[in-house]
Structures are given as structure tokens and as C-alpha cells.
Amino acid sequence: MISHAEKTAIEQAIAEEEARTSGEIVVVIARASADYYYVPYMWAALVALVAPWPLIHWTWMPVQMIYIIQLGVFAALALLLHYPPLRYALVPGSVRRKRVHQRAAQQFVAQDIHTTAGHTGVLLFVSQAERRAEILVDAGIHEKVPDAEWKKIVDRLTDRIGCGEPAAGLEEAVHKIGEHLATHFPPDATKENLLPNHLVMLNAD
Description:
By secondary structure, the chain is of the alpha/beta class. It is built from 9 helices and 4 strands.
């Protein structure tokens, strides 16, 4: 999703924006927020349960043969649907949203964003497989910037990812986040850069 040169450019954007504010920006990209290994088996089982009925009603096929066909349908579908694009496509949207939000919340804590002075940390989280992004902000920022502003940034980012411009979209999102932080949280000469500026890359759980 992101080349080494693009990763460097995003990290440079983070450093530039943090120089204009006392806030902190952390960007995390996950390959997926979950593996959803249960999904192929669930769909394969549902289809395998239905598959015998036409054979039972419209053929004289022996029960033993129907049972073998049922097992074959289950095994073939379970194997086929393990192919990642198919597996992720079959996950209900509500489940994807929930898992991405959970993973983002975990990273908010794992990256120590909640420990910033003045509670001015921002997490930009992107989950590649689910094609979703989230922005989580600490309490200090939440009081100053309405959620609608963060949604605009997320919507623009996901549009650019959908157009095949993930790196440019992330750079733009970082600069937009920085604008809000600079407006409400100007630079502080005593500020320590407690959180790393590097782009955090994660695999699925």
C-alpha cells in the first residue's frame, strides 16, 4: 500500500505539522483489523445446508451420495472463500466497522496517545483490508474540534485511497489534522516530542 519513499514523505508531513502545534499526531496503517477466519466456514456451512434439498426433491440419488456432495460443497467453498479478497468482501459492513473501531481504540492506547500533556493527541488509523479509516482524538481536542471536521478528513482520505492514491491521501489528511491542531493548540517551547513521528505499520491480529 505504501512504498518506502511514500512512508518517508508521510513521516516528514507528521514532523512538519507537529512543529506548528503542541499536539501530537500518530498515523497507523493496519493490513487488516481482523482475519475473519470464521467467515468462510460460516458461508460454506450455510450453502452446504441448502445444497442437498434440490437433490432430495428432484432426483433419486442415494442419501449417501447426497451426503458426500454436501461435504464436498462445504470443503470446496470453505477453501475458496479463504482467498482474502473474497473473505473480506463477505464480512458484513457493521462487523467491519466495529472491528476497525476496536483496533483503532487499541492502538490509541498502545501508542500512548492518551498520555500526552494537555490530552492533545490524535490517531489517524487506516485498515487496508476493510478499506476504512478512523480519527480518534483525546479529550483536550474533542472539546475544541467537532466530530464533523474529523469526518470530512476521513471521507476525503477514503476517497483518495479508493482512487489509488493512499500515500497522497494520508499526507493530505496529516496536513488537515495539523491545521486544526495549530489553530487550537499553538506550539509550546517546552513541549517534548513524546510520541514517534514514524508511520506505524501493523499486520492483522
